[in-house]
């Protein structure tokens, strides 16, 4: 009897490994928290960016959902932040190596929620050092889904504003006035006209270099020759499903064979 169980456990190992691998891949998504907030609230959001590959992530572009108004961002040492109000995008770009394999980085910012209840989709574009781009723009069933936040009037009763205070439903709290202590929060609208803000690159010489380092003005403008990992991710998930299914079938066949041999 012990032999039978040992053989079954040995056959189950590949299936377990495949399942664990699939779970790890499926959970390593770019996410924006919180998942619920209130209408019209000044909400502090945090985008978590994990690295799924063996190369570093050196740039992340986040597109604001329709009706959401970007207000402020938290500076991160080693990263520059660029806000494109026309395109509705925020770009974080690493000054050094960026986010290494097996690591993740959090990016915190403040947004004024839409006045109407509904769902907000956060489209994100993750750039890797090898030139590939993962577009987190699909629905919840896609290999690379975008993160979602549900905006509701009831959630607005407890939603936190930029000051960390409770905001009433539908009530928009104005940003901090000059002189207030807003630790680690920078207001893009308050940047000096001469471009002296520490978090935004000032050197714009060289049109080609500037285009390479600037924020993506529109998700649709991602160059056609830029490699996207969406098909690769879908192929990887399909392979894992097939491996898991074959392992389960092998376990079933082996169990039946052992049972038949025991009866003989």
Short characterization:
This protein has 264 residues and is of the alpha+beta class. The chain is built from three helices and eleven strands, in the order αβββββββββββαα.
Describe this structure in words.
It is a single chain. The chain is of the alpha+beta class and 264 residues long. The protein has two domains: 2-24 and 236-263; 34-228, Immunoglobulin-like. It is 25% helix and 26% strand. The protein has three helices and eleven strands. It has helices at 2-27, 207-213, 230-263; strands spanning 31-33, 36-38, 42-50, 57-63, 69-73, 79-84, 89-94, 104-112, 118-128, 133-136, 147-152. Strands 2, 4, 6, 7, 9, 10 and 11 form a seven-stranded mixed β-sheet that branches. The longest helix has 34 residues, at 230-263. It is extended and about 75 Å long. 24% of the residues are buried.
Features:
extended; four-stranded antiparallel beta sheet; Immunoglobulin-like; 264 residues; alpha+beta; 2 domains; DUF1775 domain-containing protein; signal; 26% strand; seven-stranded mixed beta sheet; 3 helices; YcnI-copper_dom
Which SSEs are present, and which pair or pack?
Layout lengths: L1 H26 L3 E3 L2 E3 L3 E9 L6 E7 L5 E5 L5 E6 L4 E6 L9 E9 L5 E11 L4 E4 L10 E6 L54 H7 L16 H34 L1
Parallel strand pairs: 2-11
Antiparallel strand pairs: 1-3, 3-8, 4-7, 4-9, 5-8, 6-7, 9-10, 9-11
Helix pairs in contact: 1-3
């Amino acid at each position: 009897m012990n032999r039978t169980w040992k053989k079954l456990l040995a056959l189950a190992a590949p299936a377990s490994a495949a399942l664990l691998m699939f779970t790890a891949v499926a959970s390593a998504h770019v996410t924006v928290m919180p998942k619920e907030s209130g209408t019209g609230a000044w909400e502090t959001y945090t985008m978590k960016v994990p690295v799924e590959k063996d190369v570093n992530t050196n740039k992340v572009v986040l597109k604001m959902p329709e009706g959401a108004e970007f207000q402020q961002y938290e500076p991160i040492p080693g990263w520059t932040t660029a806000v494109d109000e026309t395109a509705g995008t925020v770009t974080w770009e690493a000054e050094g190596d960026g986010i290494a394999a097996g690591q993740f980085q959090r990016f915190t910012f403040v947004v004024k929620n839409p006045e109407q209840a509904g769902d907000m989709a956060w489209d994100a574009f993750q750039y890797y050092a090898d030139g590939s781009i993962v577009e987190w723009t699909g629905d919840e069933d896609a290999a690379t889904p975008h993160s979602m936040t549900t905006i509701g009037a009831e959630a607005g009763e407890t939603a936190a504003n930029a000051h960390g205070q409770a905001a009433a439903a539908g009530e928009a709290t104005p940003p901090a006035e000059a002189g207030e202590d807003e630790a680690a929060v920078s207001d893009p609208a308050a940047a000096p006209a001469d471009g002296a803000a520490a978090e935004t690159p000032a050197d714009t010489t060289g049109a080609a270099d500037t285009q390479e380092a600037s924020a993506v003005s529109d998700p649709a403008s991602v160059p056609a020759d830029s490699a996207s990992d969406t098909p690769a991710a879908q192929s990887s998930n399909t392979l894992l499903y097939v491996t898991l299914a074959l392992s389960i079938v092998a376990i079933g066949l082996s169990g039946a064979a052992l049972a038949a041999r025991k009866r003989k």
